[in-house]
């Protein structure tokens, strides 16, 4: 069976698809990954075969300004309550959806041309790569959407989330002979059920499998064991595709006498991980909170752009075991890595999807959440805002309920079916003879 994967970006969009692609290869199927040319090297590093379908113009990829730091208070669980959104909030979502349609338009010609030549029996696309559904519709084969850890199946391709397709998306589907009402036949969802919002979409829970950024062949040549956790905080030379920038570690001097809240220190180091995706690194208030923790003797391990030029600490999922809290911005890869490690999370969320993930974690009792906009709205100094965040961080370290909820989330995540079950589910979509 030939299976065509596609995504418009590497990093957190590519990583969730790698385990299924490898499992399909292991089951004897043929796999290709069609991506914009700038993503081809990242695909090749996974050991999969990339197919370049042209470049994406930067003007197309750039996200709308209104979505970078949404203002105001959004309704709780807004993806399943679109009627509660204001016209301005629907405008933000429409701008995000129109951007993904523009990306699909830029990808569609090359993707459909390759698909018609290679004739896959199934198309698997990341949730934001609408061109995958276009290609599946053009060929009349099943489409499978791969979610990346969001708490919701966000239908930004729909007007007001649950209405008809966006006009540009409908035109694109008709251009290639596809039905504009066509939707993915199945969604693969790595989000633990207790964090996921309800949806009418057909979802298959699939356990999150972390990825180092190297192919299994490279790992074997290097003598590495991808499934084995390294010692937390041990420096390594891995690239974690789920995070931008360099990763690193910084250890504060400690007198060895006082714990994170000023009380007696437990045996062994109290370790916190800070991981950030955005190239500029964490906000000043987050930096101040981490400095406050270090001043109390907490060891801070920094990953992604939170490292700010320090030597690498290794991929997030290898750093987290032994950490007591993860401080991050709420991206799906970080949420799932911490869930698998049973680590409480402090989320300072700049964007809508991050805020949704943070709110769901807080609701489950496995963490705390603050919209990044709240730090700016009150306009305190970075030190004052950092002091408030530090109090939240110490609460996560000291109150047992957060660790208990994080361990319950870990058990739930580990119990989810693995990629092998997903292979059986997606191949059945193509027909019983496959």
UniProtKB/TrEMBL annotation:
Keyword Transcription: no
Keyword Transferase on entry: yes
Molecular functions per Gene Ontology: hexosyltransferase activity; UDP-glycosyltransferase activity
GO biological process per UniProt: antibiotic biosynthetic process
Organism superkingdom: Bacteria
Domain Erythromycin biosynthesis protein CIII-like N-terminal: 23-216
Basic and acidic residues bias (residue ranges): 227-242
InterPro entries listed in its UniProt record: EryCIII-like_C, EryCIII-like_N, Glycosyltransferase_28, UDP_glucos_trans
Pfam families per UniProt: EryCIII-like_C, EryCIII-like_N
Region: Disordered, residue numbers: 215-270
Keywords of the record: Glycosyltransferase, Transferase
SUPFAM superfamilies linked to this entry: UDP-Glycosyltransferase/glycogen phosphorylase
Domain Erythromycin biosynthesis protein CIII-like C-terminal: 315-426
UniProt similarity note: Belongs to the glycosyltransferase 28 family.
Name by which UniProt lists this protein: Glycosyl transferase
Species whose genome carries this gene: Streptomyces rapamycinicus (strain ATCC 29253 / DSM 41530 / NRRL 5491 / AYB-994) (Streptomyces hygroscopicus (strain ATCC 29253))
Higher taxonomy: Bacteria, Bacillati, Actinomycetota, Actinomycetes, Kitasatosporales
